[in-house]
Amino acid sequence: MNAAPQFSTKERILGAAEELFAQQGFAGTSLREVTRRADVNIAAVNYHFGSKENLVNEVFRRRMDDMSARRLQALHRAVARDPSDLEGILAAFIEPPLALAIDRSGSAFVRIIARAYAEKNDGLRRFLSDNYGHVLREFARAIAVALPELDRDDLYWRLDFTAGALTYAMADFGITQRADGRSEAAHCRDAAQALIQFAAAGLRAPRTLRTDPEQGLEKHA
Amino acid sequence: MNAAPQFSTKERILGAAEELFAQQGFAGTSLREVTRRADVNIAAVNYHFGSKENLVNEVFRRRMDDMSARRLQALHRAVARDPSDLEGILAAFIEPPLALAIDRSGSAFVRIIARAYAEKNDGLRRFLSDNYGHVLREFARAIAVALPELDRDDLYWRLDFTAGALTYAMADFGITQRADGRSEAAHCRDAAQALIQFAAAGLRAPRTLRTDPEQGLEKHA
DNA sequence: GTCTATAGACCGATAGAC
DNA sequence: GTCTATCGGTCTATAGAC
Fold first, then answer.
1. Which residues of B174-195 are buried (b: 16+ CB within 10 A; e: fewer)?
2. For residue A185, is it within any domain?
3. Closest-CA distance of chain B to residue A100, Å
4. Is any atom of nucleic acid chain C found less than 7 Å from the CB of residue A36?
5. For residue B178, which residues of chain A lie inside 8 Å, CB to CB?
6. How far is the C-alpha of A96 from the C-alpha of A186, rounded, in Å?
7. Predicted confidence (pLDDT) per residue in B200-211, tens digit
């Protein structure tokens, strides 16, 4: 279960931190646990990363840079092929993170992403928004081109819904369980296919009618 | 910012815990912070709740019982009116939590739900599944009746996606910001309307075609 | 770069007086 | 039911030897 010893101290710390953060969250994981699993001295983490917060950021950077590049590359390929191919755009958004989930080395990371969204007030969220917000904005632009009739508010809402569904599916929450005969890889492909189908239909839905500001949800208690 | 002093010690602890858990997570919040904000003695939390874990459970129970009852009541009303009214079923699922988000007293709680889904390995998840899992199963049954053509796997996937989108929207992650002129209540109604429209279209999408197990997502590195 | 040792603070939980 | 005081343990971070 421990990180392989042929990697550098720094790499071993990153790997151990990724697994533990995925299992227990950031606040719920101590540096002592991390260094114990990585089989390095407790002082090494401060030598290599300076602080726990910076270690968290570096755990993200190691995977996110690659994942964002894969998403944008797939997006540009899909748009060059056919700018109105909504399914192609969605596949570019959805498949790279789910492909990462197949790897043993990346499966912990996708659960970390879900945790990051729940840890709302951290510097981590600013770090993610600053460093990777442009990816989401580029997808929003491509979808606006593919669906020119789509209302701007609906576009943003629905892109958020898609991201939420993806995050949720990646973290394998929920009631859908992998069938016994189906491999992990096949399960992820099923998820990607199902989500592309679901999100494409949702994005193509008729414009949402806004209710009168006076009425609507009943406020209770 | 502190809880009003006319409430009992127990209520004040619950209220303070709810706000802090929403902001900082469960592991990230200490009982000392909770009792400081509630303006009660540190020993009171163990007297009234026994342990931190049990306090977490009670924070949930206080809101979840009511929310689940509202969801099921709305579901039964919608199904009695028209068993094929998918939008009505979805409204029964989506509106009670978003209505809770409007209340000042409940807005922290909806963010806690998102945290609960991210805190994967706790007893909390078992607690939620044991106590409230039947609600989700009842919605699955109603949707299966409303959409008899819908494939069983697709139903479960798409219900998960809807729950993920709802969780994400409630916690106001994502890029959709409330417009300056729009009230919090109107914003929540917008979210509910947009999500019902999105999820209904997604659920009505054609059956997802499963790929051949041999091909699919490229496994990388 | 890696170690030991420790500072300085905070944690959850409890005992026991009132 | 509420308080003070405290136990035994944890934590992040750092100083300084090697």
1. bebeeeeeeeebbbbbbbbbbb
2. yes
3. 8
4. no
5. none
6. 15
7. 999 999 999 886
